[in-house]
User: Which sequence fits this backbone?
């Protein structure tokens, strides 16, 4: 395992230990509402600090972009190494005791994601990838599924949750895809959904309005597992565009064809 990936795994496991302890008595967790249907808990914050502590101890000059604490003071164009962190992707699930959430950590070097960890503490599933070295689940090599027809595909997605402005557009996309695929799922953790594409549990995924920390680790898992990731126009700027389509090569192509009219 690459030394930087090993450090990220250590950080993810450190965060997971905090998350797992809190999950045993979830009713006592302090919850704050950042905006409509957008929550943060003291567990998110403690897990994020634990991740940052591990990473900064190993790599004190690296920059940080994290969901709760934001960008570190040394995050600028000259910094070649940026850790992109989501301490709990799926916080709403977590505070309801719904076991679909994860820790997501990625390293971006000179604009490219090179290391990725998505860790599901409820199932002890550890997804990892190093650019050019493949994607793994619990140290076993994973590949995207072999399905190539939309009619056979299981597709993951996410719906707007901070507001309802885009809900009508999402319902149009939902109808368009549901009429053409084997099934649609919306569990509520984009990072874990993307990892599921890499592992062949989904054949595709799409969502709009995401943040870099939702996608960074999962996107590398998919490309290292033989899949494709883009924005809704089929271009590669999804990480900061916020709109993502991912899947097996042929399912991905069919999804882009269907969803490109929603690219705005």
Assistant:
């Amino acid at each position: 395992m690459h030394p930087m990936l090993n450090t990220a795994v250590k950080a993810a496991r450190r965060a997971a230990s905090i998350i797992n302890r809190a999950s045993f008595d979830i009713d006592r967790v302090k919850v704050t509402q950042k905006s409509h249907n957008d929550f943060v808990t003291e567990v998110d914050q403690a897990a994020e600090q634990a991740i940052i502590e591990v990473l900064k101890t190993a790599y004190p000059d690296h920059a940080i972009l994290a969901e709760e604490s934001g960008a570190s003071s040394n995050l600028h164009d000259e910094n070649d190494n940026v850790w992109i962190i989501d301490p709990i992707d799926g916080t709403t699930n977590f505070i309801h005791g719904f076991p679909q959430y994860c820790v997501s950590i990625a390293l971006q070097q000179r604009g490219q994601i090179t290391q990725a960890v998505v860790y599901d503490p409820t199932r002890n599933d550890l997804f990892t990838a190093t650019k050019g070295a493949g994607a793994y689940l619990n140290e076993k090599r994973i590949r995207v599924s072999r399905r190539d027809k939309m009619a056979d595909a299981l597709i993951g997605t996410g719906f707007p949750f901070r507001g309802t402005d885009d809900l009508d557009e999402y319902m149009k996309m939902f109808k368009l895809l549901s009429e053409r695929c084997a099934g649609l799922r919306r569990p509520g953790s984009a990072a874990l959904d993307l990892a599921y594409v890499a592992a062949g549990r989904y054949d595709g995924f799409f969502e709009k309005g995401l943040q870099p920390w939702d996608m960074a680790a999962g996107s590398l898992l998919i490309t290292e597992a033989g899949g494709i990731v883009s924005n809704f126009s089929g271009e590669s700027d999804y990480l900061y565009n916020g709109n993502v389509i991912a899947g097996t090569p042929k399912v991905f192509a069919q999804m882009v064809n269907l969803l490109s009219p929603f690219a705005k």
User: Anything to note?
Assistant: The first strand starts at residue 31 and ends at 35. Helices lie at 3-23, 42-58, 91-95, 167-178, 190-198, 212-224, 238-241, 249-259. The chain has a mean pLDDT of 92.
